[in-house]
Specification:
- The protein is mainly α.
- It has a domain at 22-73.
- The protein has three helices and no strands.
- It has helices at 26-36, 47-50, 56-73.
- Helix 1 packs antiparallel against helix 3.
- It is flat, with a radius of gyration of 15 Å.
- The mean pLDDT is 84.
């Protein structure tokens, strides 16, 4: 396991190192899960778990759904 400051360690300023950061909105987690096949939007500090190959048409659909969600919440 990397030690603080060593190559591969998470820098102290990393956004997920701050416990006050709110969790992702459930609606966005659902879009990620259904459209992008990404099971969680939580950082897991693993390249194999945090980086995903996603088709551009899936990214487009996810963005459109998120945009529509925003429009519906601000009539």
């Amino acid at each position: 396991m990397p030690t603080p400051g060593s190559p591969g360690s998470i820098p102290p300023s990393h956004p997920r190192m701050h416990p006050t950061e709110p969790p992702p909105r459930p609606e966005l987690v659902e879009i990620a899960r259904r459209v992008l096949s990404i099971p969680t939007l939580e950082t897991r500090y693993s390249d194999g778990l945090d980086f995903h190959d996603v088709a551009v048409w899936c990214v487009r659909e996810a963005l459109e759904r998120a945009y529509d969600l925003g429009r519906e919440s601000n009539p």
